[in-house]
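no rush on this but wanted to send it before i forget. what follows is a protein written twice so to speak, once as letters and once as structure tokens for the fold. mainly i need to know what kind of three dimensional shape the backbone takes. thanks a lot i owe you, the record is right below.
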Amino acid sequence: MFLDFNMQRDILIVTLKGELDHNSAEEVRVKIDDKIDMNEAKNIILDFSGVSFMDSSGIGAVMGRYKKISYRGGNLFISNVNKNVNKIFELAGLYKVIKKYNTIEEAVGCI
């Protein structure tokens, strides 16, 4: 899993590329948490445009970041979700707590 980080105002934008599964979830957790703490991010946008596969470990990684940023009074948003990953989010009920946008720009504009 490759992660690219970008800060805009108080928003940490994380572009994920690869498979978000049991092999990569821990690394994703650690790297994103480090960036949240280092940059004092208030909001996070996870860009799923490069994610080809996600399993339950990926769901756990996303929900963990949601909880972490929520404790800080912020929000987590997702963007660019493909059809397969979208189905995982729907089945897991994540859209009840996490807002989805079609693009990063759309998400940034709504924060």
Observations:
- The first helix runs from residue 25 to 39.
- The chain has a mean pLDDT of 95.
- The CA atoms of residues 11 and 43 lie 5 Å apart.
